[in-house]
């Protein structure tokens, strides 16, 4: 996301926060241990990592590697998950309206061969499922529903691409191309494209990230006026119509996944702020420049409360005590949202920030992420964590992942149910 990994887009979103100087350093273990109740072990439940393929963020190390080299790198990431006592890998298999499996609907991803539509000579998703299961890991297939391309020239797409066959489906925005979520035929198509993988492979989960309508770009508007005129009657505003479009995608996809593969779990990993309390009294005590409800038209709170999704992994990519968005405050807010629902709550952790000199002082301490796990263990709705991302788990430049493993993951964990 952004350049275009999730990390880059998250950083872009954070740049719109109203930031204040930190009053003090991040709390130490004693302060982090203060919470609503004690006693539950953080060792149980989800221990996941995202394995991102857009722009080769985590894998493959470069486009055009031989099939055997790509396979070896992929397996190495699975082995890294086992080595760190994780139990789940969330593998990005549809980064930009393309496929990391032989799809009946969309072309092979350019991130494999370097050229969109070129057969890489093997089946990455099929291999990932087989090799993950052989290692006792769950494999969740991660899809981006509406992003078509990271450049806004449709002529750069392979000639047979659905976006070229149906140019009326596509909206250029912020230098990229997106499918229009307001068109029922688009919603049906992207579901069919994703379900192709779900029906073919014994995936343990189906996963959406934080992209629905795109993140706002200053001075630009997403041109869906025609679709709104055609399909937006009965809604009080275009924003309400857009939210309904995304709600429909989530509900319909959940139903199709449960019907096609009842054992698979359907989850979403949204940006960590639903709404600020200043916008909505039900919101979090944050000052976010991006709010999923208002800017991405994703009513993630409702999805959790109504049980439309099996699990949610909010991206809580901030340190404890960060003033505009405090990890501790957001953790408590999401715990309350999940309470009483059927939706399992996992927490997305910004491992990529640990040891990055561009980040704040809190992230220079390799114990910061471990403190997150300690604090989260005191909230009964938190059932685990997912780390962004696989390359950072493997490289562990600051020792933060080793600290998490030593403090919390001293042995293997059963896969979450």
Automatic annotation (TrEMBL):
Glycosyl hydrolase-like domain sequence ranges: 46-359
Pfam families named among the record's database cross-references: GHL10 (PF02638)
Domain of life: Bacteria
Residues making up the signal peptide according to the UniProt record: 1-25
This protein's UniProt keywords: Signal
InterPro entries the UniProt entry points to: Divisome_Glycosyl_Hydrolase, GH, GHL10
Protein name stated in the entry: Family 10 glycosylhydrolase
Organism for this UniProt entry: Streptomyces olivaceus
Organism lineage string: Bacteria, Bacillati, Actinomycetota, Actinomycetes, Kitasatosporales
